[in-house]
Write a structure and sequence with these properties.
The protein has helices spanning 2-33, 41-68, 118-123, 151-157, and strands at residues 85-90, 96-102, 112-114, 131-135, 140-149. It is α+β, with helices and mostly antiparallel strands. The protein has two domains: 2-68, Transcription elongation factor, GreA/GreB, N-terminal domain (Helix Hairpins), CATH 1.10.287; 73-157, Transcription elongation factor, GreA/GreB, C-terminal domain (Chitinase A, domain 3, Roll), CATH 3.10.50. Helix 1 (2-33) packs antiparallel against helix 2 (41-68). The longest helix has 32 residues, at 2-33. The protein is elongated. The N and C termini lie close together (9 Å).
């Protein structure tokens, strides 16, 4: 899972680097050749895209650095931790929900939560059978861990 995420981010970095170093300079050069830069929308758009690409590259570099620093030996193999898929049951409604704990602040698929989110913090370190207290502004939810698949199990099945 971590390696797949690294590979996906590496691919995005390569595409952005190509855009930053090849495509955008040629667009800027072409816009400059058109003349007056004060009223040149192509020039402004290219500069804005260049700033966006640089910012995104900074984010990806930071996330890749964090991923590289992860020590699999520090992630518990019997409790909820990074990369775990956990099924919880709300003790009040008996509704089951499934979450996959990840790191980062990027786009999340449904069911994915970050370790730093309120639900991620509530579930971290819990074992099957334990109850996590999720404190929300209007109430406190009691979520019982009914099933757990750690990152170690997921990596072993890949």
């Amino acid at each position: 899972m971590i390696e797949a995420l690294k590979q996906k981010m590496d691919e995005e970095v390569k595409k952005l680097m190509h855009e930053l170093n090849v495509i955008l300079p040629s667009e800027i050069r072409r816009a400059v050749e058109m003349g007056d830069l004060r009223e040149n929308s192509e020039y402004k758009a290219a500069l804005e895209r260049q700033q966006f690409v640089q910012a995104r590259l900074g984010q990806l570099t930071q996330r890749l650095s964090k991923l590289s620093a992860i020590d699999m030996g520090q992630i518990p193999d019997d409790r909820v931790g990074l990369g775990s898929t956990v099924v919880v049951e709300d003790e009040h409604t008996n509704v089951r929900e499934s979450y996959h704990l990840t790191i980062g602040d990027g786009e999340m698929d449904e069911g994915h939560v970050t370790m730093g989110s309120p639900i991620g913090r509530a579930l971290a370190g819990k074992a099957v059978g334990e109850t996590a207290l999720l404190k929300l502004p209007t109430k406190v939810r009691r979520l019982k861990v009914v099933q757990l698949t750690t990152i170690h199990v997921e990596l072993a099945t890949e």
